[in-house]
Amino acid sequence: MRARAPVAIIRRLALIARILLAALLLLATVLKARAFRGTATALVAFRVPSVLRVPIAATVTLVEAGVAAALLANANWAPYAGAALLACFAAAAGLALADGKRGAPCPCFGAGSTIGPVVVVRNLALAAAFLSLPLLPAGVPTTTEWLVLALVVAFVCITGLGVAVLALTREVGLLHLRLGPDAALDIVEEGPALGSRVDVPKNGDTELTLAVFSSEACRLCQTLMPVVNSFRAGAHLSVAVFDEVRDADLWRRLRIPGSPYAVAVDREGEVRAKGTFNSYRQLEGIVAAAERAVAEAVPA
Fold first, then answer.
1. How far apart are CA 263 and CA 257, in angstroms?
2. Is pTM, for the whole model, over 0.90?
3. For 271-296, what is the mean pLDDT?
4. In the chain, which end has fewer C-beta atoms inside a 10 angstrom radius, N or C?
């Protein structure tokens, strides 16, 4: 029993390696197919004639998918086919490097990768990994082994998904900072003049008060109410909503052109920003403009 235990462990590791290598080929296949035109165009670095780029790109993509399926089906020839395929990739990348094509687009993992020494080393290492599969103990895993392997694969997928979500969150945050808030529609003749002092009822002693002018007959206003309410959580900002009917006097006094409309005033009642909005980002833009105006007014 003790002698068989290491063999069973190695057999499981061999199955994991087979699955991972097949998954790698499937990933390369998906990346090539997703940007197929770019993949075909990238073959120019390998001196492939233009008339042959699309057929060769399609052939390589199909061969990769076939080898991956054969690996999962435990075909005896699949590891050798995978090793030969990766060796060809390494040779092609090496010839392109020798031809001075370093940094050119490489179709190995879609059109986004580039030719370099790392590509050659990576493909040779993967070819060696494929060749090592036939040397490992083979056999049909037991039910328990399949469950363990499934848990391992699930853990790897969950980890990869977590990393992808974190990367996506970072990219969204950077995009948000890069784009900045959307500008609301601010017509000078409409609403109170910037810098003027107005008497707007406040909900607290905060640095800014966001006066939102809404109407029950305005469907867009009712849709945006959750957006307006989301700004109530700020410690330096209070929100007050004024209805077109109930607060008609305030509407007339401030010359509100329609709804939804927002006016941001500071502690002294000075208008710092205003405008018509129809989205979260536009209302956020009004608040951001008011915060900048208050900050610029503070003496250094």
1. 12
2. no
3. 86
4. C
Which tokens is 264 given?
Answer: 């941001």
Model pLDDT for residues 58-73, shown as the tens digit of each residue: 888 888 888 888 887 7
Structure-token pair, residue 178: 């890069």
Residue 76 is given by DSSP the state T
Position 8, amino acid = A
Q: Are 238 and 264 in contact (CB under 8 A)?
A: no
Whether the CB-CB separation of 241 and 270 falls below 8 Å is answered with no
Nearest CA to 196 out of 291, 113, 51, 293 is that of 293
Q: Containing H/E element for 149?
A: helix 143-179
- 8 A C-beta contact, residue 214 and residue 297: no
Write down the CATH superfamily of domain 208-297. Glutaredoxin (3.40.30.10)
Please report the beta strands in the chain, taking only residues with DSSP state E, as ranges in sequence order. Answer: 105-106, 113-114, 208-214, 237-243, 261-266, 271-276
